[in-house]
Records
---
Amino acid sequence: MLKIGIVGVGTVGASVIKILQDNKEIITARAGVELRVTKGVVKNLNKKRETDIVLSTNPDDILDDKDIDIVVELMGGVDEAKKIVTKALKNKKNVVTANKALLAYHRYELEALCKGNTLAYEASVAGGIPIIQALKNGLGANHIKSIRGIINGTCNYMLTKMTNEGVAFEKVLKEAQELGYAEADPTFDIGGFDAAHKLLILASIAYGIDVKPEDILIEGIGDISQEDILFAKEFGFVIKHLGIAKTVGNSVSLRVHAAFIDKNEMIAKIDGVMNGISVVGDKVGETMYYGPGAGGNATASAVVADLIDIARGTSNGPVFGFKKSLEQGLKLAKKDDITSRYYIRFEVEDKIGVLEKIASLMAKFNISIETFLQKSKKETATLLFVTHTAKEVDIQNALKAIKSLDFIKSKPVMIRIED
Amino acid sequence: MLKIGIVGVGTVGASVIKILQDNKEIITARAGVELRVTKGVVKNLNKKRETDIVLSTNPDDILDDKDIDIVVELMGGVDEAKKIVTKALKNKKNVVTANKALLAYHRYELEALCKGNTLAYEASVAGGIPIIQALKNGLGANHIKSIRGIINGTCNYMLTKMTNEGVAFEKVLKEAQELGYAEADPTFDIGGFDAAHKLLILASIAYGIDVKPEDILIEGIGDISQEDILFAKEFGFVIKHLGIAKTVGNSVSLRVHAAFIDKNEMIAKIDGVMNGISVVGDKVGETMYYGPGAGGNATASAVVADLIDIARGTSNGPVFGFKKSLEQGLKLAKKDDITSRYYIRFEVEDKIGVLEKIASLMAKFNISIETFLQKSKKETATLLFVTHTAKEVDIQNALKAIKSLDFIKSKPVMIRIED
């Protein structure tokens, strides 16, 4: 029997305990030994829980227990979790974590602490989808040309609702909060930070690249309106919030933002709270992984997969898929060097000379227009542009210049087009 | 360095060699050691090949070579391949195979020969999609409620063409043959046998069940016409050829056939030669895996994934995912016990009393009609039925009885509806 201690018995932790009980026979048959949660750490001992495991408020009750084989860290947060995982690894425990924030900041320090013991984290990205394993093992033959992931269920739920039902952002957000798909403070999800953490974990497996969240472009979905969604529809696109990794020569562009994608692409078809990750390898081509990205049972399913892997003795591969460093690894591309087609929306006063002024500033920054659409109502007009391939730095400079013009009514909206 | 011998250096074998050369640096970094193909076995030594590995026509040159660590079997076929894999395993080689027919018939005998050495077969199902690994590890926490796989690219290509372009079966088949998506003798693909082999491999991982192709229901796509496709469209369905595993109580239904599926399901959206497998677990819910199911590079990508796994020392898990047998495993459900809604098409003489006769025979076999549509042209009529949930045995008996009636012009077509 393998004994497991869970630090942070919340929704996911309770699901782990329940799955190991409900599916005990088949999990034992697959793992070869019984997996049993014997201890849990919680913040509040007085809260009523449906479990008979030994609970305490002190992580050391698990970390210092010689009988505990595997520590499952489900407390979330960065600093405290780091201390606990660090101590667990130093104490030669195997560790399973679902903590994407922890890994986004400290994954390489933690990897360095593994000395034959395991640090597993299938649950940290895209919940129930075994994407970590797919990237780490299944696609190992390939140079990964791109990853495009719908890896935040809140954003995808909201964009889907806005697209299918024509509902405004604020209203959908409220609905999402009522349904439990968005937090009371939704910034972490809809601001793109959650997706960024997950993207960095995937990027480590694909490229062996050590990058922190603050190094990459992170944008959310707060600026997207029905205007943008309708325009996308009209031109055969869907707006999705994506975590993107893309190689360009010897560098890799890592970024999180909403994007126009062709409605015929498989990831364009992933709706609601579901997650999906498209990975293009130089040899295999595109593969795509779809499933529930959150929820107690889905996340716990991934945690238990890691536990089974440890029990089978097959979890000792390299933590992020690289046994040795690449001699010539990829560098992080500069944000300014992104090239893309861009969709831009301006709300302007409807008066003579406006279009000319905007067009001339675009030209000044080497931005060439592919499509233009104007929609007027009363004294204001909405100007919608799609550019030919342009450089991010030029777009940003043009937007800065145009934004300050007196006839601009609100912050211009720019959405990149993922071709 | 790990030395590899390939038995059967054809398209896939050549791709394996090329991938290991092209991506040598990153594969070595991931595997920890260099993977090098040093020997190959071919049928014809005189054929010109772009490789400098040592070739022979005798498999024993690889199997008896003490320097060879891994035998990759890519020759296909059952009997000869079985001898070779058996000898390789007995000689303590690790074996990687892409041979689904071999595994469909002899997987448990071969598993029994593994004594600490590996039998890996990621490439045997759905080419470049790491579905074996996903089922074996990633979803291990779950009872698998269902698997529905588009696992034959030829069938999917043909059905997609027929659906999107309204082209007749025979014409699409000819096109598929010209494009290399279908063999000169296409029976193995379009008759459903290829999909059946793959399904049985997946079923072993999901359920630990030992079943041979002749034990299960296997149907192809040869009877499907534009009439059926148009009817499907009209009612919000798409016709796909599926490998299906589905638990019902203590048994599992395994079958391969065309089916109506709701056009909004993710697997309904998989078009062309692409493959995709939807797996529903009792805890995680639905996950779906999409990608190229065939082709030299895609298949070789999966072979190399297995090689990396072996090099890392993480390939020693249970061959089909079970360390121990299940005490109460699932039994194979009888074909007769399938329950489903059914779509049925009759071509009949357009005369008085025909519908009454058919309807009364349906009623006699407890088949209740949900939807009925009649299309007449000249002296013939097409009768299209959708039934409420019925039993397979009743449907088969009703079809048998109706088929022999004098006004029936051609073999009735029946397609199950996967709800």
---
Amino acid sequence: MYGRTGKIIAQPGQRDALVKVLLRAAEALGEAEGCYLYVVGQVPDETDMIWITEVWRSAADHRASLDLEAIQALIRDGRPLIASMTESYEVIPVGGKGLP
Amino acid sequence: MYGRTGKIIAQPGQRDALVKVLLRAAEALGEAEGCYLYVVGQVPDETDMIWITEVWRSAADHRASLDLEAIQALIRDGRPLIASMTESYEVIPVGGKGLP
């Protein structure tokens, strides 16, 4: 398994627009091979912050998803709404609840 | 929904022991009301680091789980293996893939 978790800071006032793009990405990933989890979260009291957690069958499945046309289009839509991606970690899931 | 994501640093050499305790916790949470996700992850090249991501139906469900006897016992087992919990965030999931 392969995972990523990371913080995205939206441009001021653009968090909700960026959340919409990311939820469309999650929907597009419904068809992606090996995508187990793609959770979009907000952080209380941090009005521009978004937190994404992804779990994939493999790093290769994650990389391949970035080439999907729908995901490429959403990256283009989302990029202007992002101020910074300040923290991002590779986290290799070893088990737990809610995974296949 | 309610979520938490956070980094735990194990005492030197104790990461694998702590992972085992956390996976037992994930198993115990199989019976907990409203626990959707409890993923235990490791971070490449960070030999003492563990990353936990949890998603719950509500903050109240999360709080209630801390009173379960099995979880209390696992907190007692795990605490001596923990060096520090350096970062922890409340992340309120707004949607995505892999959630109920």
